[in-house]
């Protein structure tokens, strides 16, 4: 059965209205979720460890005598690294090395302190310091994500963060399991934590884990910032604790937009569209291409390849609900539309991707050329895979070293400099009606001291 993905054409009347329907997605959280999250956060703030134990038992089916029993120690992380297969370990370490190398270059480019002195001897500059402690949330409810461990922990480590605290839910899958079950701890996720330099790991999840990181408990330390993806409860909790702690971003459903000139095998593009559609039913996959015959080839490839995909039901629902194959008048127009979408993942699948890259201003990550599949960026290319979604790439950036640092301005005004800057500051301060500001500057003038 053919996949009923939308076919749109920019030259057809009514395109704009149809296109807006494709893009529409409400970020509003269900009111019941919001209230439940609010209650959980208040409870964790008031009762600390006791609340964590209660929610971990209720939501994950994991019974523990103390939160300390939910912590995975360094020896267990090392053991996990020894447990996984040699192929898994090699892949993990190679991916980690590439991610670390990329973020070390990022540190060199934008993560250093600097200062200078102007003509009158005044020192001005910027002091960059790492955060003391960060928390990374790693999803663990429906699937396991060792790649998320690498992408969140390694830039924090490169930035020089003093302590990295990881939380990951380990729900009991077997509802008939013994009440003392500790949940399913994924060895690859724990091995990734070891490789990435995570300091402490707690097997807790959901809004309660976010609350524990934000407020601190007797066992879980309070952090300065929380990063990492999660479900609607986690996203709502991160939104609510922002201000108590920093957060990376509020992520929506995953997205891919492919700009194609028809030169890439249609099967490759179809599978690239699948790669995001398989995340969940709300994920979005869009193709922009000026070649109608090629779009038909991609549709045929989708229909042929989908039955062999284990997550075909999710892929179908995503493509039919939020996907689109769009014929454009030209590649230039495709680039302009892409900038309006500001997608999380943007593939430029053409013979000469560098011809189009200068036209592309808004995207979380840009993948250039037919051989650059989005999945390589997800796992091992090097750049971070935590990216802005839902059009926020218009003003947001991928997670990076800079997210784990803060900047302080440095100002040291010389006596000569005070004679130049003082009158300027005083004039503006009097204009604002702030006399103390003005006189604080004037006291430092030679005539003021006299």
Structural class: alpha/beta
List how many beta strands DSSP finds.
15
Shape: globular
At the first level of CATH, the class of the largest domain is: Alpha Beta
Task: State the helical fraction.
Answer: 40-55%
Assign the CATH superfamily of the largest domain: Nitrogenase molybdenum iron protein domain
| Mean of residue pLDDT values | 94
> Would you tell me which CATH topology of the largest domain applies?
Rossmann fold
Instruction: Please give the count of helices.
Output: 18
β-strand amount = 15-25%
Written account of the structure:
This protein is an alpha/beta fold and 450 residues long. The protein has three domains: 6-15 and 252-377, 3-Layer(aba) Sandwich (Rossmann fold); 31-247, Rossmann fold (3-Layer(aba) Sandwich), CATH 3.40.50; 413-449, no CATH class. It has 18 helices and 15 strands. It has helices at residues 15-23, 31-47, 49-60, 74-83, 86-110, 146-159, 187-196, 206-215, 232-241, 266-277, 292-305, 312-322, 331-341, 353-356, 374-379, 415-432, 435-442, 446-449, and strands at residues 6-9, 71-72, 114-117, 123-130, 133-137, 163-167, 200-202, 225-227, 246-247, 255-260, 284-289, 324-327, 345-349, 365-368, 405-412. The strands form three sheets. It has a six-stranded parallel beta sheet with strand order 1-12-11-10-13-14, with helices on both faces. Strands 2-7-6-5-8-9 form a six-stranded mixed beta sheet, sandwiched between helices. The protein has a three-stranded antiparallel beta sheet with strand order 3-4-15, with no helix packed on it. Helix 6 (146-159) packs parallel to helix 7. It is globular. The mean pLDDT is 94.
